[in-house]
């Protein structure tokens, strides 16, 4: 059992934690994990497949047509020579073969008539190209020819038949031309597939880059607007496409938002002006009264001075309220720059130390590691000041207050802790609301704005604020991010 | 000394004009931006005090156009906005000081005096001397009547601020801004405590105290026994 009923789970009110930025949320997307990339890969694959199927079937079809053509010629000739043999016997066939070789035979024709021992009887090839009778219906082989000046080998497709007298006849065709054509077709097909894949990939890449860039433009613009550059608009490319339509619509929404924000800002400025101007006149009047009438009765003098102090207090409260309102309006943090939180804490402790000591309190600070953040020095100083003043107000003599700053992975932690009465768990969330009065707070001069200003400044800095029990006392934790947007 | 006051709030302006005249300044009052801009760029003034929000021409545009025309006259901006970024905008536009309404007249007077003196002050000295009090800024050493005085770094800065404005009233807010770089008012009487500690160190036991409290205004460091 704990001696302190308020020692419960650390409290981070939901309305304070909302400004916490998810880590890495603003990083650029992985270029391989984009819709554009996936689209362009898919597009390329599809084009490759389509081109491969088209060209591949054309290639296969052409090849089979060439072969059929050759086979038809061989068939016809074989039939003719067979008829000749049947009509005129071996000598007639031999004559016919010689005739065809010598004079009017077709280009690339190959004939060979051999006896049972495969020795040549007639023909333009000397050697039987096979061992015995080939098994295939249309065997293919190569022959060596001596053409004027060079030796070359030619592929031949042939048909072989055993004549009724036991001799064997081979009729073939030099298919080197067909094969050359087919080879060229094959290379052309492969080039075709390759080039169209490349073209598709390039086009896909270009297209997806274009698409991605427009989406990036939208994302970047939205981010900047979120950070307060309210005058920004989505680019309209003038292409009159769906992106332009989207941009135009979004820009209309932004126009209205900017109008509203400007109205809020103008209202804010004129409210500040309208509240301060009469205060200013009032103060000037009293000031002038004091200066110009030195002979005022002491009692009157004292009461005018007291009224002046009230005006100043009112002015301070007003300043804090305006600051909170400004933070709530979503305006960006003014003039962020590099600030050493630890050093600033040291300076404020040094500033307040004599006052604390006069109250019988110990005020100290400590910090470790690099405690630089991006922030507004005045606002951070005011945050610390309010926490210190708050502690000075509530801690009885003999107590202590400590400011500590330390480095976190993603930021800097400022902790202001004390051993005072603390804030009951059920009051902690309310403590950061404007004008909250907790427990038996009898001090009528406190406006109850201190902690709500702290919360507003934390929110402006995208910091996380938590109030915890210090067992006993209060521990206020402010986790500041290292960088501010912009 | 001739001051141009640009302020559209007639009643507030009346008090300021009266107060400034009583303090020995010659004042011209322009009651809108147009008039103010014309006087600021054509007349010859030692100082311009302008409101931030004015009809027709905004206070910041007046400063901007003055600076563009090469007019270096110091400008004190009075603003009813008083937010952190409004102050930054005011100084960025070329303003020399910024005061949030409402302010004590003494505060305005002290700042006007500081701006007027600044524009006529010479180069940075490294040794400051007032009566028998000497501050060596390079050695960071303070000597009063031959006796060395131990001061913290901040007390040294505070003393330097006062000594550089010898005979000039400095307010608590001016000290907070100049010595601590804080542009808001803490509720406590912080500055008084720090001044009293400095006074303990510098003036204790002296027949000629140098640090004086000006009731309703602030402090002044001066040799009242010349």
Attribute tags:
heterodimer, A: 486 residues, alpha+beta, five-stranded antiparallel β-sheet, five-stranded mixed β-sheet, 9 helices, 12 strands, 17% strand, rod-shaped, disordered N terminus, B: 226 residues, alpha/beta, Rossmann fold, Arc Repressor Mutant, subunit A, 2 domains, five-stranded parallel β-sheet, four-stranded antiparallel β-sheet, 8 helices, 41% helix, elongated
Helix/strand layout:
The complex is a heterodimer of chains A (486) and B (226).
Chain A: H1 14-17, H2 35-102, E1 109-114, E2 120-123, E3 140-147, E4 150-162, E5 168-174, H3 176-226, H4 242-292, H5 298-328, E6 337-340, H6 341-358, E7 362-368, E8 372-375, H7 377-394, E9 400-407, E10 411-418, H8 425-431, H9 450-460, E11 464-469, E12 474-481
Parallel strand pairs in A: 7-9
Antiparallel strand pairs in A: 1-2, 1-5, 3-4, 4-5, 6-8, 9-10, 10-12, 11-12
Chain B: E1 2-6, H1 10-22, E2 26-30, H2 33-42, E3 47-51, H3 59-68, E4 75-79, H4 84-92, E5 97-100, H5 105-120, E6 127-130, E7 133-136, E8 141-144, E9 147-149, H6 153-164, E10 170-171, H7 172-180, H8 190-203, E11 211-214, E12 218-221
Parallel strand pairs in B: 1-2, 1-3, 3-4, 4-5
Antiparallel strand pairs in B: 6-7, 7-8, 8-9, 10-12, 11-12
Summarize the helix and strand pattern of chain B as letters: EHEHEHEHEHEEEEHEHHEE
- If strands are numbered along the chain, what order do they take across the biggest sheet of chain B? 2-1-3-4-5
Mean pLDDT of chain B: 89
Largest interface: A-B, 44 and 39 residues
Q: Tally of extended strands of chain B?
A: 12
Helix percent band of chain A: 40-55%
Order of helices and strands of chain A: HHEEEEEHHHEHEEHEEHHEE
Task: Quickly count the helices of chain A.
Answer: 9
Provide the structure class of chain B.
alpha/beta
Number of strands of chain A: 12
Helix content of chain B: 40-55%
Give the overall form of chain B: elongated
Oligomer: heterodimer
Which value, in Å, is the CA radius of gyration of chain B?
19 Å
Specify the CATH architecture of the largest domain in chain B.
Answer: 3-Layer(aba) Sandwich
Largest sheet of chain B: 5 strands, parallel
Into how many domains do the coordinates of chain B divide? 2
The CATH topology name of the largest domain in chain B reads: Rossmann fold
- Termini gap of chain B: 26 Å
């Amino acid at each position: 059992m704990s001696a302190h009923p308020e020692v419960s789970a650390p409290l981070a009110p939901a309305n304070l934690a909302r400004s916490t930025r998810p880590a890495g949320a603003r990083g650029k997307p992985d270029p391989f994990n984009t819709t554009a990339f996936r689209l362009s890969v898919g597009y390329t694959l599809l084009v490759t497949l389509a081109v491969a199927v088209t060209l591949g079937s054309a290639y296969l079809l052409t090849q089979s047509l060439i072969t059929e053509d050759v086979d038809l010629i061989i068939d016809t000739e074989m039939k003719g020579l067979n008829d000749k043999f049947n009509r005129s016997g071996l000598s007639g066939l031999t004559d016919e073969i010689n005739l065809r070789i010598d004079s009017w035979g077709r280009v690339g024709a190959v004939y060979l008539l051999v006896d049972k021992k495969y020795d040549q009887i007639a023909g333009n090839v000397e050697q039987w190209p096979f061992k015995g009778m080939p098994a295939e219906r249309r065997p293919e082989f190569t022959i060596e020819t001596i053409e004027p000046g060079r030796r070359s080998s030619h592929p031949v497709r042939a048909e072989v038949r055993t004549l009724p007298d036991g001799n064997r006849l081979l009729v073939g065709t030099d298919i080197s031309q067909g094969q050359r054509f087919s080879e060229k077709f094959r290379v052309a097909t492969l080039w075709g597939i390759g080039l169209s894949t490349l073209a598709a990939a390039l086009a896909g890449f270009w297209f997806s880059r274009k698409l991605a860039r427009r989406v990036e433009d939208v994302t970047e613009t939205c981010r900047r607007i979120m950070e307060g550059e309210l005058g920004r608009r989505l680019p309209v490319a003038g292409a009159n496409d769906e992106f332009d339509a989207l941009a135009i619509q979004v820009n209309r929404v932004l126009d209205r938002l900017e109008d509203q924000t400007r109205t809020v800002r103008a209202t804010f400025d004129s409210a500040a002006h309208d509240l301060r101007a009469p205060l200013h006149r009032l103060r000037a009047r009293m000031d002038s009264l004091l200066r110009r009438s030195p002979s005022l009765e002491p009692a009157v003098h004292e009461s005018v001075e007291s009224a002046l102090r009230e005006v100043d207090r009112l002015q301070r409260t007003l300043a804090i309220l305006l600051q909170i309102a400004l933070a709530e309006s979503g305006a960006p943090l003014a003039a962020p720059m590099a600030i050493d939180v630890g050093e600033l804490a040291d300076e404020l402790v040094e500033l307040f130390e004599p006052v604390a000591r006069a109250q019988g309190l110990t005020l100290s600070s400590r910090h470790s590691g690099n405690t630089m953040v991006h922030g507004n020095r005045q606002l951070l100083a005011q945050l610390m000041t309010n926490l210190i003043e708050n502690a000075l107000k509530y801690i009885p003599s003999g107590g202590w207050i400590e400011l500590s700053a330390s480095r976190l992975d993603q930021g800097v932690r400022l902790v202001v802790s004390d051993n005072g009465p603390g804030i009951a768990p059920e009051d902690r969330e309310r403590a950061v609301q404007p004008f909250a009065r907790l427990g038996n707070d009898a001090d009528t001069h406190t406006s109850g704005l201190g902690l709500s200003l702290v919360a507003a400044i934390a929110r402006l800095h995208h910091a996380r604020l938590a109030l915890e029990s210090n067992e006993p006392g209060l521990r206020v934790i402010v986790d500041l991010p290292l960088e501010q947007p912009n | 000394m001739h001051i141009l006051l640009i302020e559209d709030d007639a009643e507030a302006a009346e008090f300021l004009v009266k107060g400034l005249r009583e303090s020995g300044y010659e004042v011209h009052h322009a009651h809108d931006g147009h008039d103010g801009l014309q006087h600021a760029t054509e007349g010859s003034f030692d100082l311009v005090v302008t409101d931030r929000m004015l009809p027709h021409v905004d206070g910041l545009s007046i400063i901007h156009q003055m600076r563009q025309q090469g007019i270096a006259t110091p400008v004190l901006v009075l603003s009813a906005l008083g937010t952190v970024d409004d102050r930054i905008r005011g100084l960025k536009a070329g303003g020399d000081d910024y005061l949030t309404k409402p302010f004590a007249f003494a505060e305005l007077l002290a700042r006007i005096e500081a701006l007027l003196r600044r524009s006529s002050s010479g180069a940075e000295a490294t040794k400051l001397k007032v009566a028998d009090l000497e501050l060596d800024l390079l050695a960071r050493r303070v000597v009063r009547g031959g006796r060395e005085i131990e001061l913290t770094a901040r007390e040294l800065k505070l003393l330097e601020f006062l000594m550089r404005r010898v005979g000039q009233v400095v307010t608590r807010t001016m000290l907070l801004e100049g010595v601590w770089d804080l542009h808001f008012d803490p509720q406590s009487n912080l500055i008084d405590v720090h001044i009293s500690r400095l006074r303990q160190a510098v003036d204790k036991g002296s027949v000629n105290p140098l640090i004086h409290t000006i009731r309703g205004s602030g402090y002044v460091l001066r040799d009242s026994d010349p």
